[in-house]
Amino acid sequence: MQCETVSLQLADIADGLTQLPLESERHVESCLRCQAELAQYRKLLRALSALRGQLLVPDESLLDDILDALRPPAPVHRLHRRNRRAAYIGGIAAAATAGAAGAIVIASRLANRQSLAS
């Protein structure tokens, strides 16, 4: 049996609710590579379970940082009718970028807390 075939099934059995077919189970028992991959899936499930009850409180300066990123660097001028569509699209893009930046900051701080806890 090939490791590639079994590795597709390992994520499904990591939680212990389902079992591998007998042939695949025998392969995992004898294959260190598949055992290590299964251990990684189980470790990931434990980490995700630990995050479930965690409350994330963003820094007080996060909102100010996002608003500063959204503020225009120059005075705003009245737009002509044909330029409004471009302005709306630009505003949506800026809001999406700021939201992604906020998510990245939150995720990196969460990862830092996880690495400190380990």
How far apart the termini lie comes to: 36 Å
Give start-end ranges of low-pLDDT stretches: none
Order of secondary-structure elements: HHHHH
What portion of the residues fall into strands of 2 or more residues? under 5%
In one word, what is the shape? elongated
Structure, explained:
The chain folds into two domains: 3-52, no CATH class; 61-117. It has helices at residues 3-13, 22-30, 32-52, 61-70, 84-117. The chain is built from five helices and no strands. It is elongated. It is an all-alpha fold and 118 residues long. The relative contact order is 0.08.
Task: Show the helix and strand layout.
Elements: H1 3-13, H2 22-30, H3 32-52, H4 61-70, H5 84-117
Summarize the structure.
This protein has helices spanning 3-13, 22-30, 32-52, 61-70, 84-117. With 118 residues, it is mainly alpha-helical.
List the main descriptive attributes of the protein structure presented here:
elongated, mainly alpha, 118 residues, single chain
